[in-house]
Design a protein that fits this description.
By secondary structure, the protein is of the alpha+beta class. It contains 15 helices and twelve strands.
């Protein structure tokens, strides 16, 4: 059944003058030391959205307006309309029109969605065939009549292949429906993961801290063994951001968050993932209780017991409405929005919209040729016009920058790295949620479920505190926070059988509440210390490593190919392993309890 879901928003709160000055100084300091991050959520009104009350003398007796009509010439922003544009045919056309954007898209397919390579190649070949027909028609139209030959007086009829056009359209529609949403989701996961990691580690720039309240605390847990897969536990932030009370949410399927503009294809993919018992990620439009829409990034995974049986599904949600509004981290979408708004403004002003310059038919066909075809043209092109036919020696495919053989992609389960079609019951979430535990409430604090990256023999049903080393003060404060039912973020020493001294990691604990208001389970997200994770190696799946023998590395594979083979190049360029080995230091961990960051919630404690 559909696993529709939720994301996070926060209420803005007034700040004191001292707090504002402090935030300003912090912003100025962080501006030079922190990379620029886009806000995930949009808050407040734009300048042109402020409402101006009307004076009584300005009111028409027959009018019932309370505020001045919105007539400043700006089209009112609609998240629903922006969502439709994000997953539209026009968006994918923008990607295919630019070689650099197409390279990003096809590299993503090659790396994460190997099953989509055949439909991509099929589409490119149908377009090539259509452009070849267009070129042949252009040649036929250029034929001129010859005196004395009556058959040359009439022009030949143009060739049309409607069946081929329909096949190309259907192939493109499949990529719009299935691959474009996966590409958008992947891009947003990278941004969200970095923001959440900085939020947990306390290194998020000051100007983004308020908008990130509750960012890593929106979870719900469903039970597929019950009819309609209802929610059985949800975090406090889940209720706050969706505006639905606990009595309404618990015991219901998540579909109550769907609305008129929720994509049915997204719902279908979630339903199929649950039926297949696999993890999935999706970005789609949901609605709060008051009817307001928000873009929801859902990361969902099954939770398996020690025998591999799926017991529950865990869902982590993030509100990415701000990313959609600001067109962050998607250059193609930014271009589309800019072009669309420019056309609207020109139409409103009565200006003529300039059409792009038409390309020569042979130029368009040449752009579609792959490297083997280009090599054939280079070696054999114009041979019939040469005075003497010389034997042409076959060139070395490795010499030069276009004589390279076609690359073969292995689409087998062992050779592909699929974005959403993963093995049954793996239970892997994406991005910063790669490492997580679900723990029974105090006093048990035993680990019930673990992500694949943490699932080693003996971890299930073991005490959480047995994995926490270092300072006794940190352990005591962490245990007390879990006993009090307070959400807590702590920097701890994470120990294992191979590393008894442990390495620095952040743990972010969020309680999930049951129907009686009591804590049913803890969601514990584990993040490596940012200082120990090299830039460019975050959020990548790394093999198990013995700290005594160094690290394994995944070799990068790079090759260049034709437009038809865009999906086969640079597939593993970014497949670097994560450096997860912390330097061992001596001494205990310094710890203290700071003032809660979120005054409106009791779930706020930080231990460092």
């Amino acid at each position: 059944m559909p696993f529709s879901d939720i994301a996070s928003t926060v209420d803005s709160r007034p700040q004191s003058r001292h707090s504002q000055d402090s935030s300003l100084k912090s912003l100025q300091t962080n501006a030079t030391s922190q990379p620029s991050l886009p806000p995930l959520q949009a808050k407040g009104l734009e300048e042109h959205e402020y409402l101006i009350p009307l004076n009584e003398e300005d009111i028409d007796p027959g009018s019932f307006d309370l505020v001045a009509p919105h007539d400043d010439g700006h089209k009112q922003y609609s998240l629903e309309a922006r969502s439709e544009l994000l997953f539209s045919t026009e968006h994918l056309k923008v990607i295919f029109a630019d070689p650099s954007l197409l390279l990003q898209f096809t590299s993503f397919l090659s790396t994460h969605r190997g099953q989509s390579i055949p439909i991509l190649i099929y589409y490119l070949d149908t377009i090539k065939a259509l452009k070849a027909i267009s070129y042949s028609n252009a040649i036929a139209e250029a034929l001129e009549p010859i005196d004395g030959f009556d058959f040359t007086r009439t022009h030949p009829k143009s060739t049309l292949n409607e069946d081929l056009q329909e096949k190309a359209k259907n192939a493109f529609d499949v990529m719009v429906r299935e691959d474009l949403p996966a590409f958008v989701t992947f891009a947003y996961i990278q941004t969200v993961s970095l923001s959440i990691q900085k939020r947990i580690a306390g290194t998020l720039p000051a100007y983004l801290r308020e908008a990130s309240e509750g960012l890593a605390e929106v979870f719900c847990l469903t039970d597929p063994s019950r009819p309609d897969n209802p929610i059985v536990f949800a975090s406090e932030e889940f209720h706050r951001t969706t505006q639905y009370g606990m009595s309404y949410v618990l015991g219901r399927n998540c579909r109550f968050l769907q609305g008129p503009k929720t994509s049915p294809h997204s719902v279908r993919r979630l339903r199929d993932a649950i039926d297949a018992g696999r993890e999935t990620c999706e970005v789609f439009l949901n609605y709060r209780r008051d009817g307001s829409p928000f873009m929801n990034l859902l990361m969902m995974a099954p939770l398996c017991d020690s025998r591999g049986t799926i017991r529950y599904f865990i869902g982590a949600q993030v509100d990415v409405s701000g990313l959609v509004k600001n067109c962050s981290d998607l250059e193609s979408f930014g271009r589309l929005v800019q072009d669309t708004e420019s056309k609207v403004e020109k139409e409103a002003e009565g200006q003529e919209i300039e059409e792009p310059a038409a390309k020569d038919e042979f130029q368009e066909l040449s752009e579609m040729l792959n490297l083997q075809e280009l090599d054939t043209v280079r070696r054999w092109g114009g041979r019939m016009h040469k005075e003497s036919h010389q034997e042409i020696v076959d060139t070395n495919f490795k010499a030069g920058n276009w004589n390279r053989p076609r690359l073969t992609i292995n689409n087998s389960p062992d050779g592909s790295n699929n974005f959403d079609s993963l093995s049954r019951g793996r239970g892997k979430l994406s991005g910063v949620y790669e490492n997580y535990l679900l723990v029974r409430p105090y006093p048990s604090l035993r680990i019930l479920f673990a992500s694949p990256s943490l699932r080693v023999p003996g971890i299930l049903q073991s005490p959480l505190m047995a994995k926490i080393g270092g300072s006794a003060r940190v352990r005591d404060e962490l245990t007390q926070a879990l006993a009090d039912g307070r959400g807590v973020t702590a920097k701890v020493r994470w120990i294992s059988k191979l590393d008894l001294e442990g390495r620095n990691r952040w743990i972010h604990c969020t309680p999930l509440l049951g129907s009686n208001g009591a804590i049913g389970v803890w969601m514990v997200v584990i993040v490596d210390d940012e200082a120990l994770v090299p830039t460019g190696k975050r959020f990548k799946i790394a093999p198990s490593v013995d700290p005594k023998f160094g690290r394994n590395s995944v070799a990068s594979i790079r090759d260049d190919a034709s437009l038809r083979n865009f999906a086969m190049i640079n597939g593993a360029r970014d497949s670097k392993d994560r450096d997860g080995i912390a330097k061992r230091g001596e001494g205990s961990i310094r710890s203290h309890v700071s003032v809660p960051e979120r005054s409106a919630s009791p779930y706020s404690l930080r231990i460092e």
